[in-house]
Amino acid sequence: MTKSEIIKTIFLPVPAQVAWGYLTQADKLAKWFHVPKQDLANGQPYELFGADSGDRLCWGKVINMEPYNSLTYSFAVKPFPNIESEVHWVLDEIEGGTRITMRHVGMESAGAESFGLTMAFDKGWDEHFAKMRDI
Fold first, then answer.
1. Which residues contact 4 (CB under 8 A, 6 or more apart)?
2. Angle (CA) 117 59 62, round 5°
3. How far apart are CA 92 and CA 13, in angstroms?
4. Largest Cα–Cα distance in the chain?
5. Helix, strand or coil for residue 18?
6. What is the Cα–Cα distance from 38 to 112, expressed in whole angstroms?
7. Of 18, 37, 73, 96, which residue is most buried, by most CB within 10 angstroms?
8. 5 phi and psi, to 5 degrees?
């Protein structure tokens, strides 16, 4: 079985400390992703809700946080509640701003549906990254 992995990179014209806030702070996550009830915290569970519906859309647990450098969390979504993948973020401060690289891994646990799930996540991340570019 081929390992499913989505890799995306985005460049933001802000320092890593500011970019970090958009990955971990509730008010900033809500601007480009989904709405958390609280900031992400190392070792703690999290839930993300739809801005309009209020439905719980994503959830998991923060596995590791290294402020301004990296963030890893488990990730489950409403359509596939029993499939847990992982999202890894790496922030690199570069001249003029920050490069953020996201790796989403583990979709192969969906079995026969893994390719469709990977395609759906790939499209979703593109939409969310477009919103992040506009903030």
1. 105, 106, 107, 108, 114, 115, 117, 118
2. 110
3. 12
4. 43
5. helix
6. 35
7. 73
8. -155, 130
For 93, which DSSP code? E
Model pTM above 0.85: yes
Q: Which two tokens stand for residue 83?
A: 């499939």
Q: Which residue has the tokens 């979703």?
A: 124
Tell me the pLDDT tens digit for each residue of 8-51.
999 999 999 999 999 999 999 999 999 999 999 999 999 999 99
What residues form DSSP beta bridges with 58?
48, 77
The CA distance from 29 to 68, in Å, is 15
Structure tokens given for 73: 């969390």
